[in-house]
Write a structure and sequence with these properties.
The structure holds 2 protein chains of 2 kinds.
Chain A lengths: L1 H12 L15 E7 L3 H12 L4 E4 L8 H5 L2 E2 L6 H7 L2 H12 L4 E2 L3 E4 L3 H13 L4 E4 L1 H7 L10 E4 L3 E3 L1 H14 L3 E3 L6 E5 L2 E7 L2 E10 L2 H10 L6 E11 L9 E4 L2 E5 L5 E6 L2 H11 L8 E12 L5 E4 L5 E5 L5 H16 L17 H9 L1
Parallel strand pairs in A: 1-2, 1-12, 2-9, 5-14, 12-19
Antiparallel strand pairs in A: 3-8, 4-8, 5-7, 6-7, 10-11, 11-12, 13-16, 13-17, 14-15, 15-16, 18-19
Helix pairs in contact in A: 2-8, 2-11, 5-11
Chain B lengths: L19 E10 L2 E7 L3 H7 L6 E2 L6 E2 L13 E2 L20 E4 L3 H7 L13 H12 L16 E11 L3 H12 L4 E4 L14 E3 L2 E2 H14 L3 E2 L2 E6 L4 E6 L10 E12 L3 E3 L12 E3 H11 L6 E6 L3 H11 L3 E7 L7 H8 L4 E2 L2 E9 L4 E9 L10 E4 L2 E5 L2 E3 L2 H6 L7 E3 L6 H18 L11 E3 L12 H5 L7 E3 L4 E2 H11 L3 H8 L14 H8 L16 H11 L1
Parallel strand pairs in B: 1-6, 7-8, 7-14, 8-11, 14-25, 16-23, 17-18, 17-23, 18-19
Antiparallel strand pairs in B: 1-2, 3-4, 5-6, 9-10, 9-26, 12-13, 13-14, 15-24, 20-21, 21-22, 27-28
Helix pairs in contact in B: 4-10, 6-7, 12-13
The chains are: A alpha+beta, B alpha/beta.
Pfam family, one (chain B): Pyr_redox_2
Organism (chain B): Hansschlegelia zhihuaiae
Protein name (chain B): FAD-binding protein
């Protein structure tokens, strides 16, 4: 009983900051208006606010980790895709730095195992990743089972990245929100942007229902909201959607070792031992595929089934940077590996918006670039 | 007599309708030899023997006892030698037989119990578990001990004209309507006992007592293979097919099979569940729902205690109070949260001379850890402050609570389909009149949808009508009071008012994120015992939207995979 009283006393002392603003108090103008409520949007809000801008963030729903960010809460440096490999290279280190400075974000250096039927292509990618010094290498099939015992049914070599991180996406979102507010940003949940306010070719603000907010720059960091806003503004966004589903199991699941990326399945395990399994639409078929791969998981109870929409740029690459409309910036189409890119993209955007060049690794992702140009870059 | 809490045989004969006093049965619970009567369930036999504590809660390690029965039981038990996630069932679903051996929760929960209360924002991870996880990850090779992969579950696909979910009064009434229209009807009932809680009420349908009417109908339907017992519908898909988990062997509840039933129309007659009350230490053994206490009395002649106190905000509390008095249990007082209750049930209770205190809330209970029982109940008036609130401690060893009824609508909410898509709800109200009328109407609507005219007449019901119970939400002060950390809004998941308050302060207007963080509804009862308490408390805190509500049942990966196979 004493320990409980003590605990509640400690909890009382750690009163949370008042970080949520009431919708009625939305400002009439700000430097940067961020649309979205996930880790991506919060990362941008924090980066811009830290850089000294007056930031307001508007989320149509909750301010918390988005479905796709929770579906695969893994941050890794090595990427089979060459362009992503360049942008994500510093992601785990950046996340650890941010988590340390924010506090309260449980991170696990779990490692990540990428499995594919075509292990030769994977091997070629691994050679390149290894040459870049990303700390990832191929492991033979016997070692795959040693690393991840439930994967008894898989018999191919796999790419193993030791330093990949599994993070509590909700806690990360909360910590980023706290940091953004501490830096002067204001966060509005349940206040979705309904239209862009245009002045000729440039966007000058956001309409939020019957309210208008003038903004020096608008960052669209929520794919669905962005599509609606841009379409209504007669613009075009080149994003493709992929419908997926995430199964969450009860805690205490068998250890799976590192996080697993098996073809288009993504499997991670949180600290309470609950698995998140994400794959193409159809929860039943997903469970079946999972059990073929790892029969030992058969008895796990499914506590949640959540459909998730994953958006990717038409050429399979995200769109990060200044949009065709003046004053609008995009952080969209992050694809299945949404969380890896969130923090690096936020830093890049904040730098780019303050007139800096930002990170050159993001140049291929600039939305104004035609797909042809990007292809050229890829070839080069 | 079997057990100190069994009513003496001098008690009125209407108590103990299901047990045979002449036939004692011996069984073991957790290694302890106990005895019950033929017709007892494990829950009633344990209650009769005075086993008040059935185990401890998963996160906080608080002792817990019997509060609800069946689907709403948050302390499920298992038979020795039975394994798997579905092996834990309510003690009320296990019929006691000679030589039966049962146990409380498994080792995993005992391990977690060792952990200290988890801090607000790491609730999902008590200290011990955290250490185990850390160790697991630090080991050079993860220990290769894995649970044996279960074989794919037995799964089958079935079709019928109409599927009725629930064989209570509403379901049976719907079945009568649909069968009079000549349709091929199937019924599934999650409990091993059809009729719902009809036997807890006095009244008549078509001139026969409620329980008798229900039993006759149900046995006729069982004989024709229409009604399947111990079969829980857990989901209705967008195409209208219903996933049913069936326990074919009563001796081994953990062994389940899956049925995917495609029907032209579905009637959801899942009924209503009683809502517990929110006050400090509302989870203590000895705090019991009014319907649970009445079920033990009427079915098994088991008294919930020796000195009872009733706290209610609906007529249900008075019904149980009157039964308790008839059975010879002393009822200290009935505390009613309402200011001015009306209606025939209240009038009869008043006429019988029961001491009643209106506008009165329970603020806490006094519990003796060593004895494992209640000793007193703290109460005060809803209005007034300080001395005028009349705070007092009443002595009692059992507290009967009733916060009115909430619909078991999780199946309906989960599907999002309505009558236009062939899913008909028979959830009109908790009273027998509304149940029968609602069931008949839903059956008629389903028949009309399939173009079959009814030929029968609606059953005639004579019962005492209920006054709608008033929901008295927890007051804003109670969130900040010292009792908030002991007032549970989700019993099985160990979520208290205090947790909810801190989560709202910390996470802001984010009901889904808060539900995830607190693990709402993740207990063994999937949040069913707590009904909509968390949602009511969340709204009282000023939160927008809804936190997670109860689930009808949770499939395993194995069952999902089996369903995928049937779908092909």
């Amino acid at each position: 009983m004493i320990s409980r009283d003590l605990l509640s006393a400690v909890l009382r002392r750690r009163r949370p900051r008042d970080i949520w603003s009431a919708p009625e108090t939305a400002p009439e103008s700000c430097d940067v208006a961020v649309v979205g409520g996930g880790v991506r949007a919060l990362g941008v809000a924090r980066a811009c606010a830290t850089a000294g801008a007056k930031v307001a963030l508007f989320a149509s729903g909750e301010i918390a980790a988005a479905g796709d960010e929770r579906a695969w809460p893994v941050v890794r440096a090595a990427h089979v895709d060459r362009l992503r490999s360049a942008t994500d290279a510093a992601a785990p280190a950046m996340l650890r730095r941010v988590a340390r400075s924010l506090g309260g974000v449980p991170i696990d250096v779990s490692g990540c195992l990428t499995l594919a039927e075509d292990s030769e292509a994977l091997g070629r990618a691994a050679a390149r990743i290894k040459a870049d010094g990303a700390g990832a290498w191929m492991v033979p099939e016997r070692e795959v089972v040693a690393l991840s015992p439930p994967l008894a049914g898989f018999s191919h070599a796999a790419l193993y990245e030791q330093a990949a991180i599994t993070v509590d996406a909700d806690a990360l979102a909360l910590a980023l929100a706290g940091a953004a507010v501490a830096a002067g940003a204001r966060l509005f949940a349940g206040l979705g942007a309904t239209a862009l306010e245009r002045d000729g070719p440039a966007a000058t603000g956001l309409l939020l229902g019957d309210r208008a907010v003038r903004a020096g720059a608008i960052v669209l960091a929520d794919d669905f909201a962005a599509i609606r806003l841009i379409r209504e503004g007669n613009g075009r966004l080149s994003l493709t959607r992929e419908e997926r589903v995430t199964l969450v199991t009860s805690g205490g699941a068998p250890a799976i070792g590192p996080a697993l990326a098996v073809e288009d399945l993504r499997i991670s395990r949180d600290r309470a031992g609950a698995l998140s399994v994400s794959g193409p639409l159809g929860a039943d078929a997903l469970a079946r595929r999972l059990l073929v791969l790892a029969p030992a998981l058969a008895g796990l109870t499914v506590t949640d089934t959540e459909p998730v929409t994953v958006w990717t740029g038409v050429d399979g690459q995200p769109q990060i940077g200044a949009a065709g409309i003046d004053g609008v910036w995009l952080a969209l189409g992050f694809g299945r590996e949404a969380l890896s890119l969130a923090l690096p993209a936020a830093e890049h955007l904040a730098a780019a918006m303050s007139g800096d060049r930002g990170s050159p690794a993001f140049e291929p992702f600039a939305p104004t670039r035609g797909p042809g140009l990007r292809l050229e870059e890829l070839v080069r | 007599m079997s057990g100190p809490y069994r009513l003496p045989s001098s008690a009125p004969s209407r108590f103990g309708s299901e047990v045979d006093r002449a036939e004692p049965v011996g069984f073991r619970f957790g290694g302890r030899a106990l005895s019950g009567l033929y017709g007892d369930t494990l829950a009633s036999a344990l209650a009769a023997s005075g086993v008040a504590v059935l185990g401890s809660s998963p996160l906080l390690g608080r002792p817990r006892g019997l509060m609800g029965l069946g689907l709403e039981d948050h302390m499920p038990l298992a038979l020795e030698g039975d394994h798997g996630p579905w092996s834990m069932v309510s003690g009320d679903e296990i019929v006691v037989r000679e030589g039966l051996r049962a146990r409380a929760q498994g080792l995993g929960q005992t391990l977690r119990r060792l952990a200290a209360p988890a801090a607000a924002d790491r609730r999902a991870l008590p200290v011990v578990q955290q250490m185990i996880e850390r160790l697991r990850r630090a080991l050079p090779l993860p220990a290769p001990r894995l649970p044996a992969g279960e074989a794919f579950a037995d799964a089958r696909r079935e079709t019928c004209d109409v599927l009725i979910v629930g064989a209570g009064l509403a379901g049976l009434s719907a079945a009568a309507a649909l069968r009079s229209a000549g349709l091929d009807v199937r019924m599934v009932e999650a409990s091993h006992r059809p009729g719902g809680i009809a036997d807890l009420y006095d009244g008549r349908i078509d001139g026969r007592p409620l329980a008798e009417w229900a039993a006759t109908r149900a046995s006729a339907l069982r004989d024709r293979g229409v009604l399947r017992l111990s079969a829980t519908a857990i989901a209705i898909d967008h195409d209208g097919s219903v996933t049913v988990i069936e326990r074919p062997e009563p001796q081994r509840p953990g062994r389940v099979s899956l049925r995917l039933i495609s029907a032209g129309a579905v009637v959801v007659a899942t009924g209503f569940r009683e809502r517990p009350l929110v006050f400090a230490d509302n989870d203590r053994p000895g705090v019991t729902l009014a319907t649970t206490a009445r079920a033990l009395l009427r079915r098994h002649a088991v008294a919930p205690g020796r000195k009872a106190l009733v706290a209610t905000s609906s007529d249900e509390g008075y019904r149980t109070a009157m039964d308790l008095r008839d059975a010879g249990v002393s009822v200290q007082m009935a505390l009613d949260a309402r200011d001015d209750p009306q209606g025939s049930v209240f009038d009869i209770a008043k006429a019988l001379g029961a001491p009643i205190s209106l506008s009165t809330l329970v603020t806490g209970v006094e519990y003796e850890e060593r004895k494992g029982g209640l000793t007193g109940v703290r109460a005060q008036n809803r209005f007034g402050e300080g001395a005028s609130a009349g705070a007092r401690v009443l002595s009692a060893d059992v507290l009967i609570v009733s916060g009115g009824f909430a619909p078991r609508d999780e199946l309906l909410r989960g599907t999002g389909l309505d009558a236009e898509h062939g899913v008909h709800a028979a959830l009109r109200g908790p009273n027998a009149i509304e149940a029968v009328a609602g069931g008949w109407a839903a059956g008629a609507a389903a028949a009309a949808q399939l173009g079959a005219p009814l030929s029968g007449a609606e059953p005639e019901v004579e019962v005492m009508p209920d006054e709608p119970g008033e929901i008295v939400p927890p007051s804003p002060e109670s969130f900040r009071g010292p009792g908030a950390d002991g007032a549970f809004v989700d019993f099985a998941a160990d979520v208290t008012l205090g947790d909810l308050l801190r989560a709202v302060e910390r996470r802001g207007p984010a009901p889904a994120a808060i539900s995830r963080r607190l693990g709402l509804t993740l207990g063994p009862d999937a949040g069913r015992l707590s009904a909509d308490l968390a949602a009511i408390a969340f709204r009282a805190l000023g939160g927008p939207g809804d936190v997670a509500g109860p689930a009808a049942g949770r499939p395993t990966l194995n069952l999902l995979a089996a369903r995928a196979k049937v779908r092909d």
